[in-house]
Structures are given as C-alpha cells and as structure tokens.
Design brief:
heterodimer, A: about 100 residues, B: eight-stranded mixed β-sheet, 13 strands
C-alpha cells in the first residue's frame, strides 16, 4: 500500500502559491487537500510502525488515504486541463488571475 | 479599554504595504483592501524598492506574499521589521515546505509576526489584520500610559508591589529658582518647553546616577536612590546636576537648587482608591524638600550624615552650618556644595 505521487511537493506548492486571496483558488483547494491526504497517510504509517496493536485501523485509514489521494490527483489533472494551465510550468492562465470569488 | 480600541481600529482606515512579486495577483488584493477603505500599496520584494517606499511612508501592516522557490525574498521581511516602525508583518505561504521555510526564517530572525496559509479562506486575512492592529493599538496605548507613570512607580509595579514598603533611601529634590518670576515674564509655551528641557536633562542624570524619579513636582523633581551606596549615588547625582546647571545652554535662565537627605521612607500608592499615584513619604522626604528650598541657584544642600556616608572626596563642601527649617523643632545641620 504505497502512496503514488504524480505531483511533487514543489508542484503542489507552485499551484497553491498562485492562488493568493481573491483569485481562482479552486485548483489550490484541491492541491491543499492532496497535502492533507499525504499528511494523513504519513501519520498512519508512523502509527503503524509504532505498533500500538491497532494496525488494522491504520491500514484501513491509509488505504482510504491512498484511494482518495489518487482520486484527487486525477481531479487536479482534470481541473488544470479544463482551466488551461501550462502543465510544464504549472502557471495559472492569465484569464484566471483576475477572477474574484463571490464569497469575498 | 481593549474593546473600545478594537472598535476604533475596526472603523479606521489603515495603510497596508503588500510585498509581492506577482503584480496581477497582488493587484486584486490591493483592490479589495481599497474596497474596505484601506490604503494599500504594492511593492516588489526587493530591498531597494522597499527601502525607498518605507523611507517616505508609514504603514500599519505589512503583508508579504511568499513563493517557496524564491526564499531569498524573505529578507524583505527583515528590512520591513527594521524600517516599518513596528508594523506587524504577515507572510502568506503555501502549506508544507513553503510554510516550513517561513517558520524557520521567523525563528531565526523574529521578522515575521504571523504566517497565513494560502489560499486564504473568506475574510480571514482581514480579521487577522484587524486583530494585529488592535493588539498594536493596545500596546501603543499601554506604552503611552506607562509614560505617565514615573520610574519609581514602574519599578514598584514590576516588583509586584501591592503594600506600602519601608526602606532606607536617599532622597533628592530639585527645584527651579526664580520660577514664579520667570513664569510671569516668559510666554507660557516657551516656559513649558524650557521646563521640559530642563527636567529632561535632569531626568537623564538621575537615571545615569542609578536613581529613579518618583515624580515631577512642577518645576523640579523628586528622585530616590536605594540600596548600598545610595548616599554616594545621590550626592554624585547632585554634583552632576550642579555641573549641568553651570554648563547648560539655558544657563542664567533656568538655575536649580538641590536638597538631599537620607533615612527611612515609606513607598507605595497614595490617594483615592482607583486614582492613586505612587509616592514616598516620611520625615526624610520633608527634610530633603526643605533643604532644597534653602538651596541657592546652583547649590546643593545635604545633611552631614549623607555627606559622610557618601564619601565623595572630590567635592568641595562649605563648612557645616545649622539652619532653622519650617516644621522641624530644632536647627538642622547641613552642608552645602
């Protein structure tokens, strides 16, 4: 049960950093979720290694984290394609840079 | 007090310096700040650009947009810390490695007050800015109030003083000579400034001599010296004040007399509950005040007991004399310098 990473930590940072406060932040939300899932997976692996007698609990959570992570990475792929991000530089398209969200 | 300050801060327009390398993304933040009545200025994270901006303008808060692949830009926070007059510094950073870089920089330099993860949700950034500004306003107000408390009172508060304390202290009074005559002949604003200038100089000498100012007495001051060597320190202080009196730029206009005595005093809060002030009382305080009242321009009058304990050999004392002082039943011996 390994966590497969298609987006490196640097890629994720690059996506999040471009979402400052008042522009399109949806890909950044997905990227943030990926970071949280990675933290969750790492935490479960650590707990499992500590062997507290509940390895089945940690396995179950880690498996779900792996599954959710794969799904969210696919989602990020999809979103970046839809929005037209440059996949090499992971630069936000100029048209999205000035898109205030309603909640703000 | 804090809720009043929070309300005032929330209602007021503030100036925000946004340090960011991405003009497109930052322009939106600047627009939103402006929509909330704040004045926001954008500057790239270069030392030169920031220095130019901070040289001419004062900002209430600095917001820095950090990118993990440009860690050197964090140095701009260090400059903001030194040149922004104490404005809070907020860094926006992506979670993970970027935030870790900023945290490490903060621990190393103390040049960052808050780290906010991007993307910032809702109006969290504005709430944070309002909170930081309230805190700063509160600190500024506390500092202004603290200025009104004489050093003697501050050290008494800092030492956890709650009850009056008895102690041996050397007490020094100064008083401007001919002040009534001068107050009537010099325009009041000039008189006010002249007194402040004189008291400022005197206060600095008291502190340099190891004393603390208990209070200002209109056109003079009351200072106290505690601990071993208190008599020596108090007389040395008096001699330094005498030197100031002889050499100051306003010599001939503002001349002071000095009175010093040593003995048991009681210190603590005096006055109506809730409106009290720190003070010291006792016969020693009265004696020092009376000695000051008989001192001529540029003269120090002290008790022989204090002069003996002070053991200041360089000063030339005049012969001991006995004087009648108001409130004291018998003549009091005193020494003049």
């Amino acid at each position: 049960m390994e966590l497969e990473l298609r987006y490196s930590a640097e890629d994720i940072s690059r996506i999040i950093e471009q979402a400052l406060v008042y522009q399109c932040a949806c890909p950044a939300q997905v990227a943030t979720t990926l970071l949280e899932l990675r933290d969750l997976y790492d935490y479960q692996m650590k707990c499992r290694a500590d062997d507290d007698g509940n390895s089945r609990v940690h396995d179950a959570i880690a498996a779900a984290a792996v599954e959710a992570h794969a799904r969210m990475e696919s989602c990020l792929d999809e979103v970046l394609d839809i929005e037209g991000w440059d996949r090499k530089t992971l630069a936000m398209p100029a048209g999205l840079r000035k898109k205030p969200t309603k909640s703000l | 007090m804090s809720s009043n300050i929070a309300a005032v801060v929330a209602a007021r327009s503030h100036s925000v310096l946004l340090v960011a390398s991405d003009p497109h993304a930052s322009a939106l933040l600047v627009e939103r700040m402006a929509a909330r009545g704040h004045r926001a200025a954008l500057v790239p994270p270069s030392i030169e650009a920031m220095r130019n901006r901070l040289r001419f303008e004062r900002f209430d808060v600095v917001i820095f947009d950090f990118h993990h692949d440009r860690p050197d830009e964090l140095e701009a926070c260090r400059l903001a810390r030194s040149d922004s007059g104490g404005a809070p510094i907020v860094v926006l950073a992506a979670p993970g490695a970027a935030t870790e870089l900023v945290e490490s920089f903060r621990a190393r330099t103390r040049a960052v007050d808050e780290i906010v993860n991007k993307p910032v949700a809702g109006d969290a950034l504005f709430r944070l800015v309002a909170r930081l500004l309230s805190r700063r306003e509160l600190d500024d107000t506390a500092a202004r109030y603290a200025m009104l408390v004489p050093e003697g009172g501050r050290s008494w508060i800092d030492s956890g003083g709650t009850r009056p304390q008895l102690s041996e202290q050397a007490i020094l009074f100064t008083d401007l000579r001919r002040s009534t005559e001068l107050a009537a002949s010099v325009p009041l604003p000039e008189w006010f400034e002249a007194i402040n200038r004189s008291l400022s100089d005197q206060g600095a000498i008291v502190r340099e001599s190891g004393g603390s100012i208990v209070k200002y007495t209109g056109d003079g001051l009351l200072a106290a010296f505690r601990g071993r060597g208190r008599s020596h320190l108090a007389l040395r202080c008096g001699l330094a004040l005498q030197k100031l009196d002889r050499t100051s730029s306003y010599r001939g206009t503002l001349r002071i007399g000095v009175g010093i005595a040593e003995g048991l005093v009681m210190s603590g809060l005096i006055g109506e509950l809730g409106r009290q002030q720190f003070d010291i009382i006792g016969a020693t305080v009265h004696l020092a005040a009376r000695l000051c009242s008989i001192a001529n321009e540029g003269e120090i009058v002290a008790t022989p007991k204090l002069v003996r304990a002070a053991a200041v050999t360089r000063a030339q004392a005049r012969p001991t004399r006995a004087v009648n002082l108001r409130g004291f039943p018998a003549p009091i011996e005193c020494v003049s310098f």
